[in-house]
Specification:
mainly beta; 8-stranded antiparallel beta sheet
C-alpha cells in the first residue's frame, strides 16, 4: 500500500497536479512584525494581528504595496488570504509591478479574476479556470504560485487553475502584496512561505 501511495504521489507531481515544494522552504512572515519586508513610508495601511497581515484602505483610497526585502528568481510561493469588507482588488506582484496574480475584483473588468495573471500592457491575457467553485469568499483560501523563468502556474485550494507563459518578464525581483487604489477594501494574509528553485 505504501509503494502504491508513493507511485501515485510521483505521478501527480509529474503531471503537475500538485506543486513540488523545495527543500529550502522558508517563512516570509514571522507572525509578529514586518521583518523581511519593506514597509511603506508613513504606513497607515498595513497592520499585524495574531499572526496575520491585514491591509485596509485609507480615506483617500490610495494604493500601497508591501514588498519583500529579498529578490527571487525561480520559486514556489504559498500563502493564505481572506477577503474582508469592501470591494477587494488586490494581488501578488511577481518580481516587479508589471507581473501580477490577481486576488479579487478587477477594476477594469468589474468582476472577480482571482488567480488570473495581470500583465502590464496586456491586461488579463488568460482567465483562471474553476475559481468560482473553489474560492471561499468568507474564509481563508490557500494559493500556491510556481514561477520558473517566464512560466507561471497557480493552484487555489489544492487545485490547479492557471498556467501562463509571460513575454519578457523580469528575471529577478521581490514579491509584493498589493492594496489597489480607488477602492474601500481590506484583505488579510498569513502563512507565507517560499521555496527557491535552482534549475
Amino acid at each position: 500500500m505504501k509503494t502504491k501511495n508513493i507511485f501515485l504521489l510521483t505521478l501527480l507531481l509529474i503531471l503537475g497536479v500538485i506543486p513540488v515544494s523545495g527543500q529550502n522552504k522558508t517563512s516570509l512572515f514571522n507572525g509578529k512584525d514586518f521583518n523581511g519586508w519593506l514597509v511603506p513610508e508613513n504606513n497607515i495601511w498595513w497592520t499585524i494581528h495574531e499572526g496575520t497581515i491585514k491591509v485596509k484602505s485609507d480615506p483617500q483610497k490610495r494604493e500601497s504595496v508591501l514588498w519583500t526585502n529579498t529578490s527571487y528568481e525561480n520559486f514556489i510561493l504559498e500563502l493564505e488570504f481572506k477577503f474582508g469588507d469592501g470591494t477587494v482588488d488586490s494581488g501578488i506582484f511577481l518580481r516587479d509591478i508589471t507581473q501580477q496574480i490577481q486576488l479579487g475584483i478587477s477594476s477594469s473588468l468589474k468582476r472577480d479574476m482571482t488567480c488570473s495573471p495581470y500583465i502590464e500592457g496586456l491586461g488579463y491575457p488568460i482567465e483562471a479556470s474553476g475559481v468560482g467553485d473553489l474560492l471561499e469568499l468568507n474564509d481563508w483560501n490557500h494559493i500556491v504560485i510556481k514561477v520558473i523563468d517566464n512560466h507561471y502556474t497557480v493552484w487555489l485550494n489544492e487545485k490547479k487553475v492557471m498556467t501562463y507563459s509571460s513575454t519578457n518578464p523580469p528575471k529577478k525581483g521581490p514579491i509584493g502584496l498589493q492594496l489597489h487604489q480607488s477602492h474601500e477594501m481590506e484583505i488579510s494574509f498569513r502563512s507565507l512561505f517560499i521555496s527557491e528553485i535552482i534549475h
